[in-house]
Amino acid sequence: MDLRRWWYFAVLAEEMNFTRAAQRLFISQPSLSQQIRVLEREFDTALLDRDGPRFRLTEAGRVAAEEARRLLEKVDRAQAKVRAAGRGETGRLRVAHTRSAPGPRASALVAAFRRCHPEVAIEAETGWTSRNVEQLESGEIDVAFVRPPIDSALLEEVIVDEEEILIALPAAHPLAEFERLERRQLAGEPVVFWSRDNGPGWYDQIREQVWPGHQPTVVWEEPDDEQLLHSVAAAAGIAAVPEHRARGLNVAGVALLRLADPVPRTHLALAYRRGEHNPLVANFVALARREPAVPPGQ
User: Does 278 fall in a domain?
Assistant: First the structure.
């Protein structure tokens, strides 16, 4: 059944006058009359009582007018939903966080997106950079927070935050008495690190900034920063950690010190698929580019 005829009949039922209804519909009166008769044949029942100087709605016509109104309201809602989805205002966005950066910037971006797009359902999960990159490449997630640099021809990234890398030491360590550490003071110290497989580019970036020119003496590996700091507290070694995460965890028995210039820094990036056409992703990336970054140390 042609939806247009439902619309014609709904307007006619409101106006109860063929001339006015035809004017509203921008069609001729004979065309409107013909379409209403076609609709009656499709229903196999009369919708109008044409006896007398003015037509009236039959009982079937009153039901048809009410159903036409409801049907057209549903169509309007459906059109609005489709258009909103096309603008990236509804739907589902799958976001992956990285365990090393649960801090203010990532959370603030997601919260800002929720405020701007309250009809969008956000599905969030937490992984590590390498895993997030793999899931993003395979299409399992839509956007991901990662620690750059990443090595992927399929992805693009936008830097959204920067923070300082601190040195975590056991609280009783002799170096904990210093205000700032020189890199030469770290030479030979046992180091606790997480696996390079979690984020090769980030691992190498930290190593090159903190232990330039040589490999650190890694004596133990932990899966994430929390376990790493607990190992430091147990005097297994020292560690290089991002400031937001380290201060947020606040592990007892750990002293956090800054390094002398050049101050080592790390970034947080939002990664997404190159050439992505999903408007939700476009809106999230645009927000990440537009929102001011949280100042380092905040």
Answer: yes
For the cut 70, the answer to whether the pLDDT of residue 295 exceeds it is no
pLDDT at 86: 75
Is residue 218 exposed (0-12), middle (13-18) or buried (19+ Cβ within 10 Å)?
middle
64 shares a domain with 18: yes
| Residue 180 sits in the same domain as residue 258 | yes
SS3 279: helix
Helix (H, G, I), strand (E, B) or coil at 270: strand
| Structure-token pair, residue 113 | 């997106």
Is the separation of the CB atoms in 50 and 44 below 8 Å? Answer: no
For the segment 251-277, the average pLDDT, to the nearest whole number, is: 95
Rounded to whole angstroms, the Cα distance separating 162 from 146 reads 12
Pairing mode, if any, of strands 120-127 and 91-98?
A: parallel
| Residue range of the domain that includes 77 | 3-86
Residues 21 and 36 in one domain: yes
CB atoms closer than 10 angstroms to residue 80: 12
> What does the alpha-carbon distance between residue 264 and residue 225 come to, in Å, rounded to a whole number?
17
Distance between CA 40 and CA 201 in Å, rounded? 71
Overall number of domains in the chain: 3
What CATH number corresponds to the domain at position 50?
1.10.10.10
